[in-house]
Amino acid sequence: MYPYQYYPMYPPQTSIIWVSGEQEAQMYPIAPNNAVTLWDKNGGAVYVKSADATGKPTMKAYDLIERVSAQPQNVQEYATKSDLEALNAAIAAIREELKGEQQ
Predict the structure, then answer these.
(1) Which structural domain range is residue 33 located in?
(2) Which string of DSSP letters, residue by residue, matches 33-102?
(3) Mean pLDDT of the chain, nearest integer
(4) Stated pTM of the model
(5) What number is the average pLDDT over the span 79-97?
């Protein structure tokens, strides 16, 4: 009698799989009940290929688009200290003019 042989389970590999376009991604072999992400090294695309229990593959293609964070406001849109001082002076002059009209 032979004892049962123990086969260790290995975690799925998380390395990136590079392909040269959609045609190569279509030809990439995949086992039943599995899925794999394939990265196109020639462009900004990612292919997710999966196979059902019978081994029939399906594939979806996604375009990678850079997410651009909101750009900071243009510094020219902010008032400078001298702009505020000039505005204060203009308001003070209007107040003095209004005081003179009320008397």
Answers:
(1) 17-63
(2) TEEEEEEETTSSEEEEEEE-TT--EEEEEEE--PPPPPPPPPGGGSPPHHHHHHHHHHHHHHHHHHHHHH
(3) 85
(4) 0.53
(5) 92
